[in-house]
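Could you please review the protein record set out just below?
***
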Amino acid sequence: MKRIAALIGRTAVSCWHHGSPHLPPLPAWTPGPPYTCPQIRHLAAKQNKGQFKGQKIKSKPVKLEKQQKQEVEIKQRMTVSELAKAMNKDIDHVYEALLNTDVILDEMEPDTMLEEKWIKEAVKRSGMKHKWAKLVETKVRENKDIQRQPPPDPAQLVPRAPVVTIMGHVDHGKTTLLDSLRKSQIAAQEAGGITQHIGAFRVELPSGEKITFLDTPGHAAFSAMRARGAMVTDIVILVVAADDGVMNQTTESIQHAKKAKVPIIVAVNKCDKPQADPQRVKEELVGHDVICEEFGGEIQAIHVSALKGDNLLELAEATVTLAEVLELKGDPTGLVEGTVIESRSDKGKGPVTTAIIQRGTLRKGCTLVAGKCWAKVRFMFDEYDQTVSEAGPSIPVEIVGWKDLPSAGEEILEVESEQRAREVVEWRSYMEEQDKMKEDLQAIEAKQKQHQESYKKDRESMAHLSWRQRRAALYRANKHKLSHRLSEKTETEELTLPIIVKGDVDGSVEAILNILESYDADDQCELDVVHFGVGDISERDINLAETFSGTIYGFNVAANKSVQQMAAKKGIPLRLHRVIYKLIDDLKDELSSKLTPSTEENIIGEASVLATFDVTVGKKKIPVAGCRVQKGQLDKKMKFRLIRGRNILWEGSVTTLKHLKDDVLTVKTGMECGLSLDNEELEYKPGDEIICYSESEIKQKISWDPGF
């Protein structure tokens, strides 16, 4: 206590003598005359009213206004951007508030959902206090979706034409077969002779029967189109080339047909070729559980030649016979039901879909819903681009009047009014958002659980350390997170190729995206699809490509002159293709061009140092190595390396190369020479090796293999 009092006393005196801001300064002291007393004047303070003599005056305490903390309204689930907005701060503030916590900041985005405890922690670290937002009672939204109608009354059913899908491997003659049946020239119009769309056609046979054919692509890239064709069909005609046999897409087509539980008719094509072996084809099919009638099965196998038109009538009769056995019937009354086979964007017509009607009769003015899109039917066209007034069951038709472009494979349902169509579309969009939120939340929880487990392991590994050592270790581990704000983009050495994909129809874009999903070479170069869509290349695509410094890949689409000029001016590459595998090859080449070329070293010659001496040039002494070439030759223009034992002492170029007293460019095997290197401080020793070598760059290739 005495020490504290002494400290207080000294502090008081120091304050008086050094002019404390709280106390008035002492007046300057001057010595008075000897033997005189200083005059002291006593001041009387005015007595307050109601105060008695001898009563002590109580000083009123000064009330300091307490600083009010900012209140932040929070709720159980908030994103980073929502919390920043509630705190009236920027997103970086939230990131900084959550430093040195269990939250993985590197993986955090503005739309990342935060847990309740991290919301509170961020608010607390920001010097604020939280309050719960008032709960607003959310009403359960009424299900506004539309469903298929119940099965129709059998009395209303009428016979309908069969829907037949032609499937098989690429270049086995599917389109040529259909050409011969409908006497048209589709195959001649196709790029590379490869079907790259799903086409719907109606064929009337000489006997009067009508059959709706779906021609599906056989290329490996169009698996989704083949699956879609199998799901809407009644019969599958499996085309197999007699000279080629069962191939990859043949097997896949069989699997699609079995999955859809659709009967198969085998058409063994190209039987007119000398190397054709139909018997071998049918034996190979047995191995895939496709047993033809001659082997005791129920599947018809017809030998045809699509090019010459042999046995096509027999194939058509077999199809009609099987359709009669299946007793195919449809309901032409009631609301329309159908399936989108293909969708595309047309300049004059807008969004257009090719659909097959499965129930009801479609007429002009009908209101349709497909997925999250709806249409008021304005026009209908057949496969010959002729206007039709109505389309019943099993009839393929092009529908014009869609507000947006529905995806291929979507179910088409008719509704009573436009208002009802909007309700259905809004409900489906809302449900999709809810499902996405649930998926995001599950992913977040799984990631947080994983992080907590790793954090727990890290803590356990530091359990033996003192708190100071533990704190130092954590600081070292998190030091890189403090070096920059997370919202600021840091330059990375990772290679990226941003691309924009445009296609003529939805199915083509879907096929390309399915191929790109198989991309597995992100460690070499990251492939980033920044946008995809249906339709010709537009100015918006060019601007988007410029923003991301990307490349535009177009499949069966065009770019008008102004768009091409705009792309050339801005330096945006346009890669337009009509064959899908050429597009993928072009993409692989561009990915490969992004890779850093590897350097290959070629040894041209080797020499050993026999003696060393100095040569005076002006006032400088330059060390020179006397060498003998042991292998190859020394070329002054190439690079050199000095090796002693197993250590590389120097790499660079030669300043002087002499044979006898002459300057030379090359010295061959067995010859002696003197050379000096571009580093004058090097000391040579007998026995050192000098290697002459050249470096060449080798272009790397992307390791991605799309499978064709």
About this structure: The first strand starts at residue 71 and ends at 74.
